[in-house]
Design goal:
Layout (H helix, E strand, L loop, with lengths): L17 H8 L3 E5 L8 H8 L6 E5 L5 E2 L2 E2 L13 E4 L3 H14 L3 E4 L10 H17 L2 E3 L5 E4 L4 E4 L14 E5 L2 H8 L8 E6 L8 H9 L6 E6 L5 H13 L4 E5 L13 H5 L2 H11 L3 E3 L5 H10 L7 E6 L2 H14 L8 H10 L10 E2 L9 H12 L3 E8 L9 H12 L2 E6 L9 H6 L3 E4 L2 H20 L9 H12 L8 H9 L9 E3 L2 H11 L3 E6 L6 H4 L2 E5 L2 H16 L9 E6 L5 E10 L3 E8 L4 H4 L2 E5 L4 H9 L4 H5 L9 H17 L4 E12 L2 E4 L2 E5 L7
Parallel strand pairs: 1-2, 1-5, 5-6, 6-7, 10-11, 10-12, 12-13, 13-14, 15-16, 15-17, 17-18, 18-19
Antiparallel strand pairs: 3-4, 8-9, 8-11, 20-23, 21-22, 21-23, 24-25, 24-27, 25-26, 27-28, 27-29
Length: about 725
């Protein structure tokens, strides 16, 4: 077999199905190429790890007649059968020939441990990896690696890895499938089995010359052995394929939890708009994964716990959480985290409170959070009675109980909560706050059917918020933004093209946006003081003056804006001042004149913008606007276009949403109308993804049902510049 030279890497646009990967990842037979008796060698370690494997495995190494009780074969061609999976433990220099032999024999897939390929950055090593990719593409033999740590399938007890890994028991119905670009981190997560978590697979990807993270997610989405997927992700050249796999998991109702590494924004490109500096690549990843229904996890330490929760949890019956604790301090901590993550903690109904008051001493609390105090030591049944009463309350979808002290007496409590949760068709969670991490009861809690174990209050309530968010998303159904009228798109495109490739002026940008029913402030372009005074008289005082120049995208910084001018004399003075400041700018900007606009009354200032992400296309950004947008960075990001309901969700996620709802006497903003404007802006940037690089509508002044864009910036693709 001959594989021709590759001019460049071919990027796949599809994901492998479970059927295409079954021989590789669920093999009935395995060949260990490079099997050895030398202690500590990869070949020796893999043979040792396969000793409990449920299929057939064959050592391959011409130096041995036998290895242990196994006949050793000189070459893969000599094996008594065509194996499903070949694990190649040989050095890099020998790998390509072995891979070709395997492909010729029809082996289902290969796993390559050897390193020293593209990760070195050397051209010849990159070429070697590309040749492996070419073999996979042209023969259909799937390849994991190179530079990988291996894969584990707990169903078969196949530990195709050289690591001395913790034994993984047979998976339960609540098992988690683990996927990790980092082999060490993936295997580290799998050690959660010692705390009672169930794991079905551990898939590591290494350099991913062929099979990668997206393919693993696709495989597990259709694998009944796991109930949820935990993914440690750094990045990939075709992330849209991972989105395809995430959508596949969503359609299969297989919860996918992702911890995204490499969250720093160093090296981000300069942007001309405020929006461009807010929408970094990490935020884009988070936004598109959420769009696909994946649950994003901020901390690696919480990933397995989050995935394990979703593997057990039914759909929430209610959004509220009830907290029952024997420690007042722990109860307060729970309430703090619930508020932080937006998890409601309503007070119990009168009938439930009566039960609580009958078992809780007066120095405790029958409110939510419920403090049963240390009296449970004298009245052990009281905790279960109180917990059962709270779970019977229809306001609560889950019971949370902090475990503050590890002891034999407390070891039975989690199982009491588990049985009560099953009885009421709900969930329970124990927050393991004691430093005795493997204390009494921890394994039973991890193994329970309807009880989730968390090591921190923050991870617990973050997961509960995601639980309700995911259910709301499923109930909302597919979100589809209707296509725009082609004639409208063509007219807007013509106006953008008329700029000749430069940044559109505010007036030009607002003319384009008005086509999409974006409410914009009116204006007159004045070429002299007299024209400005006459325009102000027509528009009505007070007015605003702004120098119009394609070379001054940020007018505030340049000092070329004057606000709230109330007379002809003020307009003349303002005109002179803004023109003088414009003349100070170097290099001298091209000036079209001065815009005269009516002064829009005060309201909540918002920013609605967009960037054209190089990986994901147009992304819409919403946040508190004005000059403080980059300081506050209270923003929400989503792939464009968004529906009005999705836009509403973005607004609700802002920390400053209370300003929109009416704060300290301010009139509430018509958020439905604002969400509609955001949706229309997103439709515009989606329609013009091939011509618009950045967009800023800042500020968008909102007061009641009056929503007005008073400034706008459109940067065509190809324009360069910065703040």
């Amino acid at each position: 077999m001959s594989i021709g030279p590759r001019k460049m890497e071919i990027k796949r646009t599809t994901i492998y199905s479970r059927q295409e990967l079954t021989r590789l990842l669920h093999p009935a037979s395995v060949a260990v190429i490079g099997a050895s008796t030398r202690a500590g060698s990869f070949g020796e370690r893999v043979m040792f790890n396969l000793r409990h494997y449920g299929g057939r495995y064959y050592p391959v190494n011409g130096r041995y007649q036998t290895i242990g009780e196994h006949k050793c074969y000189a070459n893969v061609r000599d094996l008594p059968e065509v194996v499903d999976c070949a694990v190649i433990t040989a050095a890099r220099e020998a790998v390509e020939e072995i891979v070709l032999d395997c492909a010729k024999m029809g082996v289902g897939g290969a796993i390559i441990f050897a390193s020293g390929y593209s990760e070195t950055g050397k051209e010849d090593r990159i070429a070697q990896q590309l040749r492996l990719a070419a073999i996979a593409q042209e023969t259909g033999m799937r390849i994991v690696g190179p530079n990988c740590i291996g894969v584990v399938n707990a169903q078969l007890d196949s530990r195709i890895t050289f690591m001395d890994i913790t034994p993984i028991p047979q998976p339960t119905k609540h098992a988690v499938g683990i996927i990790s670009q980092s082999g060490a981190l993936g295997m580290a997560l799998a050690q959660g089995v010692v705390r009672g978590h169930s794991v079905s697979h551990v898939f590591t990807s290494g350099n991913s010359c062929d099979v990668d993270m997206a393919d693993y997610v696709s495989y597990l989405a259709d694998d009944p052995a796991c109930a949820s997927i935990a993914c440690v992700f750094e990045g990939m050249s075709t992330p849209e394929r991972l989105l395809m796999a995430a959508e596949k998991a969503w359609n299969a109702n297989k919860p996918l939890a992702i911890f995204k590494m490499a969250s720093g924004e160093q090296g981000a490109r300069a942007a001309m708009s405020h929006t461009g500096s807010l929408a970094g690549s990490h935020e884009s990843y988070r936004a598109v994964f959420r769009k696909a229904g994946a649950v994003m996890v901020d901390d690696f330490e919480a990933l397995l716990e989050t995935a394990a929760f979703f593997a057990k949890a039914p759909a929430p019956k209610a959004a509220g959480a009830a907290v029952v604790a024997a420690s007042g301090g722990a109860a307060i901590m729970a309430a703090d985290r619930a508020e932080q993550h937006g998890v409601p903690m309503p007070q119990p109904t009168d009938s439930v409170r009566e039960i609580l008051e009958s078992r809780i001493p007066e120095f405790g609390s029958s409110r939510n959070p419920c403090d049963v105090t240390a009296q449970i030591l004298a009245d052990p049944e009281s905790l279960g009675i109180c917990a059962g009463a709270l779970l019977s309350d229809p306001q609560y979808g889950i019971l949370v109980s902090p475990m503050t002290y590890g002891s034999a007496a407390g070891a039975t409590r989690p199982m009491v909560f588990n049985e009560l949760a099953k009885q009421h068709g709900k969930m329970a969670a124990v927050v393991w706050q004691t430093e005795w991490q493997d204390g009494p009861g921890v394994v039973d809690a991890g193994q329970a059917d309807r009880l989730a174990l968390f090591r921190s209050m923050n991870a617990c309530f973050s997961t509960l918020a995601a639980w309700q968010w995911r259910e709301d998303k499923r109930q909302a159904g597919p979100q589809i933004v209707p296509a725009s009228d082609p004639a409208l798109v063509a007219k807007a495109h013509a106006l953008i093209a008329a700029s000749g490739g430069r940044t559109l002026t505010e007036r030009e940008a607002k003319e384009v946006l008005a086509l999409y029913d974006i409410p914009v402030v009116g204006e007159t372009l004045a070429g002299s003081e007299d024209e400005a005074v006459n325009a102000a008289a027509r528009l009505g005082y007070p007015v605003v003056l702004k120098v119009e120049s394609p070379d001054l995208p940020h007018k505030t910084e340049a000092g070329v804006i004057r606000l709230n001018l109330r007379s002809a004399d003020e307009v003349r003075a303002g005109y002179q001042a803004v023109m003088a400041n414009a003349a100070k700018v170097e290099p001298p900007p091209a000036i079209n004149g001065v815009l005269v606009q009516p002064m829009v009354p005060q309201g909540v200032e918002m920013v609605v913008g967009a960037t054209n992400d190089p990986l994901f296309g147009p992304m819409i950004v919403v946040g508190l606007g004005g000059i403080l947008v980059e300081v506050l960075k209270d923003t929400a990001l989503a792939p464009a276009p968004v529906t009005p309901s999705e836009a509403m969700g973005m607004l609700r996620s802002l920390k400053g949403v209370k300003l929109l709802e009416g704060f300290r006497g301010m009139a509430a903003v018509d958020m439905d109308a604002l969400a509609g404007v955001i949706s229309r802006v997103s439709r515009f940037v989606a329609d013009h993804r091939d011509s618009v690089a950045e967009l800023d509508v800042n500020p968008l002044i909102c007061a009641g049902d009056r929503i007005t864009a008073v400034d706008a910036l459109i940067v065509p693709i190809g324009v360069t510049g910065g703040h």
